[in-house]
Design a protein that fits this description.
heterodimer; A: mainly alpha; 0% strand; B: 88 residues; elongated
Chain lengths: 190, 88
């Protein structure tokens, strides 16, 4: 069961109309290392986890990722909602616009649609937790690239918050991995 | 500033601050379940968060549905602004 809370995890201020930046930020809405991939990846890997810490952290980080997905969608929407069509023509957002209008849609910055092939679940806690740690680092790198191309102070504030969360999640997954390794080495498999 | 005089935005921001603290403590406690200081902080921030949410919900309607908070008449859950519509 999930409960929706009618608030953002972090307040989103956007200081400009910028369809090009919106298109780039869609990378984290529907790209391989984006927030949707993260949420679905972690929530999908829960069933076979051997320790309570692993079940807990995948549930809780997976849930937080969905809140981050909402933050990203809100940034994208606020960047384009008041942009006149003339200002969309000729920008990288134009191809998005002819299909989806101004609605955020889960594809990456290049327009490639979200697919479950972005994620993995192996029923192997060691393999899965390594994937999760790599995913957090790849998401951190993506946020750093986005910060390099964005000059909107409000957007940058939210991107920095999201970048920091990747670092914390990586840390927590590392701790869970150590616990799982201890658990597995203390048992005999025949 | 007195809490009763706080604007909607100030109250919401205070709730977001406190909830961020409990989210981060929650993840920390998942992997450090025996850390008593973190647990004390979690419980302290949680009761403060519950108190502020009840205050916000009395004024501006439910933050959560599905039985987590009662609603005044008429059904206030669907009132705007929705989270993505708020200008900070």
């Amino acid at each position: 069961m999930w409960i929706y809370e009618k608030k953002l995890e972090y307040p989103v201020r956007v200081d400009s109309c910028n369809p090009t930046l919106a298109q780039m930020i869609l990378e984290q809405f529907g790209g391989p290392d984006g927030e949707l991939s993260a949420g679905i990846r972690y929530l999908t890997q829960r069933w076979h986890m051997p320790t309570n810490q692993a079940k807990g952290i995948l549930t809780d980080i997976g849930t937080e990722e969905l809140a981050h997905w909402e933050i990203i969608g809100t940034i994208v929407w606020k960047l384009v909602k008041d942009v006149p069509i003339e200002k969309i023509k000729g920008t990288p957002f134009e191809a998005h616009y002819v299909n989806h209008g101004k609605s955020p849609f889960p594809h990456n910055a290049g327009g490639y649609a979200w697919t479950a092939t972005f994620i993995q679940s192996k029923q192997d806690p060691i393999a899965d937790l390594h994937e999760d740690m790599a995913a957090e680092q790849k998401a951190r790198a993506t946020y750093e690239h986005l910060l390099n191309v964005s000059d909107d102070p409000g957007v940058n504030d939210a991107l920095r918050f999201l970048r920091e969360r990747e670092v914390v999640h990586y840390q927590r997954f590392g701790e869970v991995l150590m616990g799982v390794q201890d658990y597995m080495s203390s048992k005999h498999y025949f | 500033m007195k809490e009763k005089e706080m604007s909607r935005e100030d109250l919401l921001r205070k709730i977001q601050e406190l909830e961020f603290a409990v989210i981060d403590l929650n993840l920390y406690l998942d992997t450090h379940p025996e850390n008593q200081r973190a647990l004390m902080d979690y419980n302290m921030f949680t009761s403060e968060l519950i108190r502020l949410k009840r205050m916000y919900e009395m004024k501006y309607g439910p933050l959560t549905n599905f039985g987590y908070a009662p609603s005044q008449y008429p059904w206030r859950w669907i009132e705007d602004p929705w989270p993505w519509e708020i200008e900070y």
